[in-house]
Amino acid sequence: GQQLNQSPQSMFIQEGEDVSMNCTSSSIFNTWLWYKQDPGEGPVLLIALYKAGELTSNGRLTAQFGITRKDSFLNISASIPSDVGIYFCAGQFGGAGSYQLTFGKGTKLSVIP
Amino acid sequence: DVKVTQSSRYLVKRTGEKVFLECVQDMDHENMFWYRQDPGLGLRLIYFSYDVKMKEKGDIPEGYSVSREKKERFSLILESASTNQTSMYLCATTRQGAREQYFGPGTRLTVT
Fold this sequence. Notes:
Chain A is an all-beta fold.
């Protein structure tokens, strides 16, 4: 299946800094999902986006569904040590009846206390 | 909250063994998925099921089979394990009509 381009691959930031990461695709998606995975654990859903231009927050996390439908962004404000992990984007092409997701390869976040 | 459990967190098997990985969900979701996750390759879909006894191949079904005899349970079977099947295996579920997938904690399988 098609891969999403997720960037950056990794980032090191100081505690308290804001973080931005993004995913881009050559094709249109109807849904964007953002997950976080801690070492040795399964991904946990953070934010789901369903329409172009949508901006959704979950605590210090904010994600946006790009207007072109080909990209999405995740921002983390005032990072803390427990934000460490790998963040994945996932996109879905079809409507509600289409179940398959396409995943980015992840952004590994390290937070320096 | 959605609860997805996987039978083992860590598993070590020998080449040629038959391996069963089991996933159980308690939210009455219709759709269940098996992925493997490898460094540099991301998550890849092996099989999915949208109903009891129904299955569809994903992107990398070779060397695997699945079984779904009950709605809450989806099993991944490695008929004859090989070293290139050493990986993290993740189960996910979603209800009919929904788009979000919910993952289990994963099984780290090592084949020696």
